[in-house]
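Subject: Sanity check before I submit

Could someone independently write out the structure tokens for this chain? I want to compare against mine line by line before I put it in a report. The sequence has 138 residues.
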Amino acid sequence: MNKNDIIKLFSAFSGLIKQMNDEEFSAFLDGGLDIKFQQKMKIQEENHPNISAYDALTKALDATGDRESARAFLLYSPMGKTRDSLEKYAKYISIHINKSDKKDEIVAKIIESRVGLRLRTEAIQAVNFGCGNVSDKK
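---
Independent answer below. Compare away.
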């Protein structure tokens, strides 16, 4: 890493802090907020003619209430028909797919990425904010 790389890193970090509101900044200082930098991939329309379909599918998966309904929706959508179309969609939403992954494994990775992550986050927030009490369920 050279001097210019460090300058770019601090510049990006500074811009991120400027975008935070007071609550987010306080959470960051208290250690309750993690910051992750991800590389953005530029996707050209001619390489991915289904961008609007990908976005619609992503919104629909995000709106589902559980993993099973999301799985059924994905499998009955046009993109859920073939392994190749699922692999292209997974690449679009930045999910790593191995060549050896079967169709069911790709579907599971997509569902876990879009729905499972949201459900786990909601459960953690419910416990942390007192909306749910684990001891009540005994």
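---
OP: Matches mine. For the report I'm noting this point. The first helix runs from residue 3 to 19.
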